[in-house]
Specification:
This protein is α/β, with parallel strands linked by helices. Helices cover 30% and strands 20% of the residues.
């Protein structure tokens, strides 16, 4: 018996999309008008890596193991954020399930996370060139290798410095949409991650006119991809991992632990560095959630009490509390702190800015032991900051080493954040679908995987 021909799917993850923003995005509204719109439940933490892993596996963070955008690796004593290897994600991915009944099922991943080493047919993900002399150049990891040359010839190099950092903007999302259009006709499932709303919503907050303008502009950029999908008879799904809400209260959780004698640092020529090997407690800050790692179980009650008293902390989860939210995994901290709605956690652990490590003023997502949204800004207190950035860019272009030390150490510039569960439907994630046959009013993050199989017209195979 021959395989059933699956209905092709285009799944676009529009970071930060909410009903509030959808109101100014007419092209995305047409997707829902043809099919349906549903409130999408998310996971704790409501961050990219955790939510995307749940969408693709149908599992909670406790089950797939992606407890945030990063965590502390106890076996090697290092904090790692934004890793890429797909084998970090436990569970069977939706395309692997599809291939149990349709072995020829073809999948393209355009910038969803944990792309490298995945069992997809096409992989496109940002991956800089790290030169031996310390320079970093824009590029992307693209498989099969011949596709790299095709896309660069058609679209130019991946615009890495507009994907994240003070110059993050539409150029990266426009490139991603172009790459998605290139691979869409040849695949049964095309996954596309479009980050643009993440930038201005964190810079200015969701109520700022500049955030609504970012949504309008993104809607226009997505239009050709949506048109291609409609012309090819591809079912469209648009979803988001979280909604971004207004914040005005940075919470220095690591500075508290240091003042209490629980967090240790060591110093060298680059400044003060977190010493996770000797610290009794420290936090890996990730937007509005922080995993707090406590070396000695006897210290857990004291650390919990300190965190509960810290202004801006809404809840402190021990192992039992983490289990209630589906976050009880060996990678999680002994404690998890959740911020109040208007608050978010900094990673800062130094007590004097003069002693901050040199990477603190740069865009260094792999060196910082926590997430730093201040990387979206040029330092407003440095009137020559853009001049220095231009000079450093000139150095890069002629092959000289440079340090892009332009990021502020004052976190008060950040106006939007996410990570806690939403307090209202207006700020919740949303799912749009062009197929009315699957209509429903709400859907859990853990149900997205099965919805995709249903939309593809694929039967669930027997459990193995």
């Amino acid at each position: 018996m021959s395989e059933a021909t699956p209905t092709p799917l285009l799944v676009i993850d529009v970071a930060g999309l909410t009903p509030r923003l959808l109101a100014v995005m007419p092209r995305l509204q047409t997707v829902a008008a043809r099919g349906f719109s549903a409130e999408l439940g998310t996971v704790l933490p409501a961050v990219t890596c955790s939510a995307q892993s749940t969408f693709l596996t149908g599992l909670t963070p406790a089950e797939h193991g992606i407890v945030g955008n990063g965590w502390y690796l106890r076996d090697i004593g290092e904090v790692n954020l934004w890793r890429q290897h797909n084998r970090l994600v436990g569970g069977e991915k939706v395309w692997e399930t599809a291939r149990r009944t349709n072995p020829g099922y073809r999948v393209a991943n355009v910038c969803w996370w944990y792309a490298m080493g995945a069992t997809t047919d096409v992989t496109i993900t940002p991956r800089p060139v790290y030169h031996a002399d310390g320079r970093k150049s824009p590029d992307a990891y693209i498989r099969p290798p011949a596709l790299h040359d095709e896309l660069v010839a058609k679209l130019g190099d991946f615009p890495l410095f507009t994907y994240w950092g003070p110059t993050a903007g539409m150029a990266s999302s426009r490139w991603i949409v172009g790459a998605a259009r290139h691979v869409l006709p040849d695949h049964d499932l095309t996954l596309v991650y479009v980050p643009h709303l993440d930038y201005d919503l964190q810079r200015f907050g969701p109520d700022d006119p500049r955030s609504f303008e970012a949504a309008r502009e993104l809607d226009r950029v997505l239009a050709p991809l949506l048109d291609d999908a409609s012309r090819l008879g591809v079912t469209i799904v648009v979803l988001s991992e979280y909604g971004i809400t207004n914040v005005d209260q940075p919470v220095d959780v690591n500075r508290l632990l240091r003042r209490e004698g629980l967090l240790e640092v060591h110093s060298n020529a680059s400044g003060e560095l977190l010493d996770p090997w000797t610290s009794r407690a420290f936090a890996v800050a990730d937007h509005q959630l922080a995993h707090v790692y406590v070396q000695d179980p006897a210290d857990v009650p004291r650390v919990s009490t300190l965190l509960e008293a810290l202004p801006g902390v809404a809840e402190v989860l021990d192992a039992e509390g983490q289990a209630r939210y589906g976050l009880d995994h060996e990678r999680s901290g002994e404690l998890v702190a959740v911020a109040e709605k208007q608050a978010w956690f900094t990673y800062y652990y130094w007590l004097d800015d003069a002693l901050a490590p040199d990477f603190a003023r740069g865009v260094e997502i792999h060196k910082k032991p926590g997430y730093d949204p201040a990387e979206l800004f040029f330092d407003p207190d440095d009137r020559f900051v853009k001049l220095r950035a231009a000079r450093n860019l000139a150095k890069k272009k002629v092959g000289l080493r440079y340090a892009m030390d332009v990021v502020p150490l004052d976190p008060s510039c950040v106006r939007g954040s996410h990570g806690r569960l939403p307090d209202s439907s207006a700020d919740a994630p949303v799912l749009l679908c062009s197929d009315p046959a699957a209509a429903r009013g709400s859907i859990a993050a853990t149900e997205v995987r099965d919805l995709l199989l249903q939309l593809a017209g694929l039967k669930q195979p027997a459990a193995v």
